[in-house]
Amino acid sequence: MIPHFQLRSIYSIGVNGNQYECKSLQSCYHYFVIKFVLAKGEECFFMKLRLGIDIDGTVTAPEAFVPYLNRSFNLNISLKDIKDYDLTKLLKISDEQFRMWMNEHEPTVYKNAPIAKYAKKVLDDWKDKHHLIYITARRKHLEELTFKWFKENKVAHHHIELVGSHNKLNAVKKHEINVFFEDNHDNAVMIAEELQIPVLLFNAPYNQNPVPKNVVRVNNWLEAKKWLDLHYIPNF
Ligand SMILES: [Mg+2]
User: Fold this and answer.
1) Global pTM?
2) What parts of the chain have a pLDDT lower than 50?
3) Domain 50-62+115-232 classified CATH 2.30.30.50?
4) Were both Cys, which of 27, 56, 113, 169 would link to 64 (CB 3.0–4.6 Å)?
């Protein structure tokens, strides 16, 4: 097994395009880095990660829905007032009423959703270093406008999958994701616990319940990048 990406070689010679006999797998560092001992000497390689990324509230700004909620329900709320992911309590409406509201407004909200702070800069930086695989709970009929949003906002991506439900486990498994990025507390915990991978949870007022050890809270994309760099580049 030769990793297909070399970010930094600590132990001299490059291997791109060449086949080397791997004598032993010497060590693993955290989740990502595998150090190989090769026939021609010792080298260190860095795996290209498969990053799984939620869209709404993670790549788009978490307050994207706020102006539409204020207008429709005659409210004057801001993001800090949204303490629960389930908006029916705050809006004092039934699940069915909320479903109808979403059906009507979802396309407009997504179409105009602002991008989260620093997301573009960080994702641009990662686009040649990692695989960027977006896994969203959005439903299939929103696929076209989702792709359009990525194109218009020039957000780097390799694959976008609309699973149509909050259960993303199958998609995360299928795409062999190494690290997931999420803003929904329950999704983050489910992915981290079931699949034993680190999940970076983007802090928001609605996701403050306790989390297990492999769910790491970050405040923005710069912090996410800092975490990934720290755990990805080892100190030998
Ligand atoms: Mg989300």
Assistant:
1) 0.81
2) 1-34, 44, 234-236
3) no
4) 113
